[in-house]
Amino acid sequence: MDLEMEINLQLNNFKNNLSNKTTFHSIITFFMGEIKNLLSINDSYMVQFHKVQKIYCIEKFISKDSLTNLYTLSQNEMVPGNYIEFNNCIYFILGNKKELTFILCCEINNEISSYQRLLLNMYGSFINYKIEQTFLSLCLIDELKIYNPEKDYPSWITQFLLHLAEKERNSLAQELHDTILQEQIYLNHKIEHILSKNRDKMLVDDLAEVKELIRDNIYYLRDMCNEIRYPFLIQESIHQAIGGMFQCTELRSNIKVQYRGTDLTCELSEELKINIYRIIQELLNNAIKHSDATMVNIELFDENQKLFLNYSDNGKGMDMVEISKDTRSMGIFGIRARIKSMDGSIKFETSPGNGLKVFGIIPIW
């Protein structure tokens, strides 16, 4: 393996292992472990430096020489992501949080090679970026705490949370597809191979029954992955994407979906496509699970830079006054949140025994 390939392999392993570290402590613990694997370390410790008051907070007792080194270090510019070599020590400037600068100090035994320096530079950049993102997330959480939970959050917060939820959906769908689904497919092929070579009727009958159960699992998992992860909305038009959803709805329920969608005159952003897909998906799930509907009508069109979504069903309807007390109504609140995050408006018309009508209007930017 040549040097370039070895460096790329090291960096890829570093990034992959760093990606699942979500707290400051876990990031630092991981980084210290990587540094110890790369260098010959005599001692290491964390330091917090207050840039305004010029005060150090050190996690352990250190020698007078080490304190002198820290004082000398504070006279220089400390750029996050960089490291400084000084008197047989390496000082990693990990990141800033308000007035604090976080420094990892490592006392080394040997000279550092050019190969190690290259990796240290890259490691420092990755760690700084990860810590910066972690601190930004903590600041966002602190900002969320100032809002009254009984009032609406700003639309940007809803957009951020929906984006995180969509990312988690895709990750979960990919994990299901790459692990459990593939294992079921492998088992199915294995049983087919055994059946082709066996003539024992009792065994064949038992294996055939197991094979049918596995095939059911495969269909169920594929359907679940498709429902969790939006199906190629970037490549497809929104009409094609929701058309596939309608087919699945009719196959797994007694509902007939009538859809009227006109050719859109405006190009929809990916975010808008995803939100429309999820809103319609939630409305159909509500119809299947709770409404006892047999007919659903959906209309999607645009006019004057606005997207219009109209929905109606012949289900049993609901009491909008009492709905807030029902945990099953979380889907309705999710729909409202999505519409609000896009600066749109939505209206629900329903009452017990009279089905549900929904009218949504979303501006197209």
Task: Describe the fold and architecture.
The protein is of the alpha+beta class. It has nine helices and ten strands. The chain has helices spanning 3-19, 24-38, 64-74, 114-145, 155-197, 201-228, 238-251, 270-291, 330-341; strands at 41-50, 55-58, 83-86, 89-97, 100-108, 256-261, 295-303, 306-313, 345-350, 356-363. The strands form two sheets. A five-stranded antiparallel beta sheet has the order 2-1-5-4-3, sandwiched between helices. Strands 6-7-8-10-9 form a five-stranded mixed beta sheet, covered by helices on one side. Strand 3 and strand 4 form a beta hairpin. Helix 7 (238-251) runs parallel beside helix 8. It is flat, with a radius of gyration of 29 Å. The model has no long low-confidence stretch (mean pLDDT 81).
Largest sheet: 5 strands, antiparallel
* Helicity level: 40-55%
Oligomer: single chain
Number of helices: 9
Draw up the topology in text:
Layout: H1 3-19, H2 24-38, E1 41-50, E2 55-58, H3 64-74, E3 83-86, E4 89-97, E5 100-108, H4 114-145, H5 155-197, H6 201-228, H7 238-251, E6 256-261, H8 270-291, E7 295-303, E8 306-313, H9 330-341, E9 345-350, E10 356-363
Parallel strand pairs: 6-7
Antiparallel strand pairs: 1-2, 1-5, 3-4, 4-5, 7-8, 8-10, 9-10
Helix pairs in contact: 1-4, 2-4, 5-6, 5-9, 7-8, 8-9
